[in-house]
Design a protein that fits this description.
The protein is built from ten helices and three strands, in the order αβαααααααααββ. By secondary structure, it is mainly α. A three-stranded antiparallel beta sheet has the order 1-2-3, with no helix packed on it. β2 and β3 form a beta hairpin.
Length: 280
């Protein structure tokens, strides 16, 4: 079944936002909270909490943003990869990639009539452009003694490096054939680095600033299918890899609100809303 261009685009947008939402929600923390006991003294069932950033607070700028700090933090990033939030993102991404897999062929076919519209995608999502922009931001911050700019640049650089390391490791393991017959299709590196950039900006400045970058990541992902370099499932899981990388390097997080459905015996279900001031 051939999917029209508009529908295939919307399908990818929904998949990318599905994966990005847990990160915007502080990676949908599944830490179990302790609920207050009910009136009869029996403990209420512990709620599953979902944290949602509402208004971004100022992200704390580290004291040191030099090259030594960059590589020290990068080492800590790889150590921090094994975590429940990242497992959640990988699970959502894997499930989404599996769900869209039946449309791999039809989505690529539907994009063939787009002409030259997607030509810029291969460049915008390339490692050279993404790392170059991150390195430029970092250099400007360091040269102008602007700690905030160098902090953002440092996070962007670390996100690119983590995303590429994860992407290449999975590519070498899976060795999936690309639509054009070459190897190493799964996951999409262009998608992973583009989403990683959007996540870092989101965590620093909020959704309003990052929305154009989410749009760019979607455009880049569509371009990879248009060029027959990737399948839909490749770019969907690539988005998950980018989300993991972006979230991991921005563990400084932001203040957020926790929305917790709480079951109380004999009383039903209540919604507990608390503000979490703890930063990872």
């Amino acid at each position: 079944m051939r999917i029209p261009f508009v529908k295939s685009s919307l399908l990818l947008v929904l998949a990318v936002m599905l994966i990005a939402t847990p990160v915007q929600a502080q990676a949908a923390s599944t830490d179990v909270a302790t609920a207050p006991p009910s009136d009869d003294g029996s403990p209420a069932a512990a709620p599953v909490t979902f944290s949602a950033s509402l208004i971004p607070d100022d992200v704390p700028t580290p004291k040191h943003t030099g090259v030594r700090a960059l590589f020290r933090n990068l080492g800590n990033d790889f150590k921090a990869l094994p975590s429940m939030p990242n497992l959640w993102i990988a699970g959502v991404g894997g499930a989404a990639a599996l769900a869209v897999h039946p449309w791999d062929d039809s989505v690529n076919q539907s994009l063939q009539g787009a002409g030259d519209f997607f030509n810029a995608g291969q460049h915008l999502g390339s490692t050279g452009i993404q790392v170059g922009a991150a390195l430029g931001t970092y250099a400007v911050g360091r040269l102008t003694h602007h700690p905030k700019a160098s902090h953002v640049g440092m996070d962007l650089l670390r996100a690119q490096l983590v995303a590429q390391a994860l992407t290449q490791a999975i590519k070498m393991t899976v060795r999936r054939e690309r639509p054009d017959g070459t190897k190493y299709s799964f996951p999409s590196g262009h998608a992973s680095v583009s989403v990683a950039t959007a996540i870092v900006i989101d965590r620093h400045f909020g959704l309003a600033w990052s929305l154009p970058l989410y749009g760019m990541a979607t455009y880049v992902s569509l371009s990879r299918m248009h060029d027959n370099r990737h399948w839909l499932s490749d770019v969907v899981f690539g988005a998950a890899v980018g989300a993991i990388a972006g979230r991991t390097v921005t563990r400084h997080g932001r203040s957020n609100y926790t929305w917790a459905p709480v079951y109380t015996p004999g009383e039903g279900v209540a919604l507990l809303i608390t503000r979490d001031m703890h930063h990872e």
